[in-house]
Amino acid sequence: xxxxxxxxxxxxxxxxxxxxxxxxxxxxxxxxxxxxxxxxxxxxxxxxxxxxxxxxxxxxxxxxxxxxxxxxxxxxxxxxxxxxxxxxxxxxxxxxxxxxxxxxxxxxxxxxxxxxxxxxxxxxxxxxxxxxxxxxxxxxxxxxxxxxxxxxxxxxxxxxxxxxxxxxxxxxxxxxxxxxxxxxxxxxxxxxxxxxxxxxxxxxxxxxxxxxxxxxxxxxxxxxxxxxxxxxxxxxxxxxxxxxxxxxxxxxxxxxxxxxxxxxxxxxxxxxxxxxxxxxxxxxxxxxxxxxxxxxxxxxxxxxxxxxxxxxxxxxxxxxxxxxxxxxxxxxxxxxxxxxxxxxxxxxxxxxxxxxxxxxxxxxxxxxxxxxxxxxxxxxxxxxxxxxxxxxxxxxxxxxxxxxxxxx
Amino acid sequence: xxxxxxxxxxxxxxxxxxxxxxxxxxxxxxxxxxxxxxxxxxxxxxxxxxxxxxxxxxxxxxxxxxxxxxxxxxxxxxxxxxxxxxxxxxxxxxxxxxxxxxxxxxxxxxxxxxxxxxxxxxxxxxxxxxxxxxxxxxxxxxxxxxxxxxxxxxxxxxxxxxxxxxxxxxxxxxxxxxxxxxxxxxxxxxxxxxxxxxxx
Lengths: 408, 200
Fold this sequence. Notes:
The complex is a heterodimer of chains A (408) and B (200).
Chain A: H1 4-10, H2 21-38, H3 44-52, E1 61-64, E2 69-71, E3 108-112, E4 118-120, E5 130-138, E6 161-170, H4 171-178, E7 186-191, E8 204-208, H5 209-213, E9 218-223, E10 226-227, E11 237-239, E12 252-258, H6 265-268, E13 272-274, E14 289-291, E15 298-303, E16 308-311, E17 313-322, E18 328-334, E19 342-343, E20 345-347, E21 356-364, E22 367-377, E23 400-407
Helix pairs in contact in A: 2-3
Chain B: H1 7-21, H2 28-46, H3 53-56, H4 62-74, H5 81-94, H6 129-139, H7 141-144, H8 165-173, H9 187-197
Helix pairs in contact in B: 1-4, 1-5, 2-5, 4-5, 6-9
């Protein structure tokens, strides 16, 4: 990677400075991630220097360096809102060039089965009512590393999820401005990111018209009160509250109303899961696969951390729990491998689509212990011990578990 | 010129058969040599689109690796038939379902520490810009974007490095996240890329 540091290293001749990959990556994240947030008036170099003063993005765990996939350490989830700089990142391709996303060049196009195709600038979007929704955004593959046998894909553990306040305009308002034709059944999204080679399929997906017209489905331009950072899809990203993030298209530029689902690999092949129990190696008919949409009920233990050393006596166990379009009614904790469960105390805000915080005071006794958590939602569905196996490893929601050592 | 596997010619079932029956019964010494070569293939043919950590974190059985390599070939990975077979053999042997978490590639793939490079790069042919566009598309575009307008890697169109010694040093030996291309691209190919970049 060529950057300011790389240049400096060459002037030293044979004594080449060792610039760690991690450092390079951090600088790239900071340089790119904050450029848009600081606004176009601030030169990139200056933004990068400012960003270099902060170590915040260092806290993400990189799973894939390029294109960047990085998850949040689970202990960050003691906070109700996940900060932008610590929010997980999932990229199918590298981010689009910054100049394509500038106010002058970026446009949102609405076309397909509409009365009148329209093009919007960022300024144009301000004509619509702004709304803010607190919602969990979670990668469909979050927890994939827990499946046995193992399955291909980014080996996410628990942290490809976060809870943020998203501000933007309702998709339905934008669609109505163009006027929907009656045969529009699916709404397709495409972003400005493109694969490096023409042989790689583009990331194009669609959602059914019912979800598109839902008054909580938004096109977000702010995240936690700040302009949506580049690496999170700035300037504009789809947010489908309650649904997995495969429909939360980043760097959005094109909305197309269609009769059928989007075609292509990322809609017709990827992001599908079996609707019946399957065994590893078995051939699954296309009719037995459906798109990953709703999130499933899930809880995570944010504290104590895995392998923590604790003292006997009262220990605060805390975490978060969420489900698809419903609410969490109960979180339980088990300290005997799941034989008996005790209800945790629900705390903090209780908003649709957001996660709910919970805590439990444990009278810890000495020895190696395992803490389990499971959540139940308002449909009466409880988080299972393990999730049904599928060849692509989506929708993991098995009981969360943390092993700790308690001293005398 | 390497013979590039054309999926359109043999079809995916054909590839699957190739991968199934193309396994070699090599002696241990040959296997060690194969591993080194396979790692080179991983860096050069897979690493041009994504970092190799995506590969080394997987723990898959042979059939899953066949599926994955087949998908990548369909997506344009430049693998000859023989390289595809070698790759599946290598991946299924090293990154199998129960391989320890610590198993990774050997030395190559680590971009650090940076190699201290010779001050003068001797062989520097003059480039042919028309030839450079295709080499760029197959090897560089994944990071540096179409038209070299930037992506994960920096924008190269109009970049001052094109007129600097650092261009050759970076291409050959790598720097930071940029892999070394010394053993993947010929000097002529690098010169062609440079000539093409200067036309942008």
